[in-house]
Amino acid sequence: MAEILADDCSVCVDCLMVIANDDSRGIEDAAREKVVRAAVYGRKDGGYWTAGNDELGFSWQPCDCCNSPLGGDRHAAAILGK
Q1: Percent of the chain having pLDDT more than 90?
Q2: Domain tally for the chain?
């Protein structure tokens, strides 16, 4: 059973799509896609992201996954470990 390393995280729509579906078709900028994929899959603590079902609404807080400072919709997520 996976241990919860961090819950109560909020992620941007770009990160959510990659976390939930490995789908980056909505990211038009190749550099942005690279940043998002590195943030989702490059965890050094061995953990991995999992998406929740809750939409948290609009926020100016940075995305907890890719750290983007852009405002936008945020969605619930958690980091699970081994």
Answers
A1: 77
A2: 1
